[in-house]
Write a structure and sequence with these properties.
The protein is α/β, with parallel strands linked by helices and 327 residues long. The protein has 13 helices and 12 strands. A 7-stranded parallel β-sheet has the order 8-7-6-9-10-11-12, sandwiched between helices. Helix 1 runs parallel beside helix 12 and helix 5 crosses helix 7. 43% of the residues are buried. The structure holds glyoxylic acid.
């Protein structure tokens, strides 16, 4: 029997890629940049399965051009690049990689929080650029983390992991979410508040909501105005959750203290973007899950999801199990 045709839209860690190459007839897009839309459509038209990244848009147009497509496995936990209802209608299974990247992502969110609070990158540049002439009583003063209030928007897996880290630093924890989290409240002493309370009371606001029409620009000019002047905004969720230009204006006017961003809108943020000119904006290139171990686990999970779907089984991390009966 011939092996299923698969298109892998980028080189991923070997632990997952090897499985896909062994068990399918796979083509791998080897460039650093994503495949152009025309290539993705062309390959999808022949594919039984796709292993995709968050930069690949998998929408109704692509699915209609892909008569054999059974399963699309995202190498990411976020899946705002997928039109899941369109896939369900067509009996195409869609999967993601939840769980394995939770702690690694929260580690980076906390690292950004600490780096912004204590001005680590500014300090590195100051020393490196020859400005360090003596011990300065007023030099590079930042914000305390211990004893401060952390406001978490979205208490899902990653928001909760962020709260666990905050407990170790003696922080007070507030959260805003449509759902109550008993674990956050009972185990970590977190307090559920409304959005306004979160923004007005927090010294740090960390975003952990998925990108949906409701969360687009969750942090806009009005939200930034509510935040404290010492507040630090951390975004490891999705770029469009924050209104970029409103954030730029707020940081420039020192309306809030700083922002640490792993994700931006647009993404990538062009090199000439004004946000880069601000010392109080710390921007890293969407690397929250980028540890060797976690990226390998994500690759393996995406491969297992893909291979299960191709074998006619329900993938372990299926986003639309309703599609299984149709497929
Ligand atoms: C990365 O942003 C992911 O969703 O896994």
């Amino acid at each position: 029997m011939s092996k299923p045709r698969v298109f892998v839209t980028r080189i991923i860690p070997d632990r997952g890629l090897r499985k896909v190459l062994e068990q399918t007839d796979a083509t791998v897009w080897e460039d650093e940049l994503p495949p152009p839309r025309s290539v993705l459509l062309e390959w999808a038209s022949q594919a039984d399965g796709l292993l995709t990244l968050l930069t690949d848009k998998i929408d109704a147009e692509l699915m209609d051009a892909a008569p054999k497509l059974k399963v699309v496995a995202n190498f990411a936990v976020g899946f705002d690049n997928f039109d899941v209802p369109a896939a369900t209608q067509r009996g195409i299974l869609m999967t993601n990689t939840p769980g394995v990247l939770t702690d690694t992502t929260a580690d980076l969110a906390f690292a950004l929080l600490m780096a912004c609070a204590r001005r680590i990158v500014e300090g590195r540049d100051y020393a490196r650029n020859g400005h360090w002439r003596t011990w300065g009583p007023m030099l590079l003063m930042g914000q305390d983390i211990h004893g401060a209030t952390l406001g978490i928007a979205g208490i899902g897996r990653i928001g909760l992991a962020m709260a666990r880290r905050a407990v170790g630093f003696g922080m007070r924890i507030l959260y805003h979410d449509a759902m109550r989290s008993e674990v956050a409240e009972k185990e970590l002493g977190a307090i559920r508040v409304n959005k306004e309370e979160l923004l007005t009371q927090s010294d740090f606001v960390s975003l952990h909501v998925p990108l949906t029409p409701e969360t687009r620009h969750y942090i806009d000019a009005a939200a930034l105005k509510m935040m404290k002047p010492n507040a630090i905004l951390i975004n490891t969720a999705r770029g469009p959750v924050v209104d970029t230009m409103a954030l730029y204006e707020a940081l420039k006017a020192r309306q809030i203290f700083a922002a640490g961003l792993d994700v931006t809108d647009p993404e990538p943020l062009p090199a000439d973007h004004p946000l880069y000119t601000l010392d109080n904006a710390l921007i890293v290139p969407h690397i929250a899950s980028a540890s060797f171990e976690t990226r390998s686990k994500m690759a393996e999970m995406a491969a297992d999801n893909l291979l299960a779907g191709l074998a006619g089984k329900l993938p372990p991390n299926c986003l639309n199990p309703e599609a299984f009966n149709k497929s």
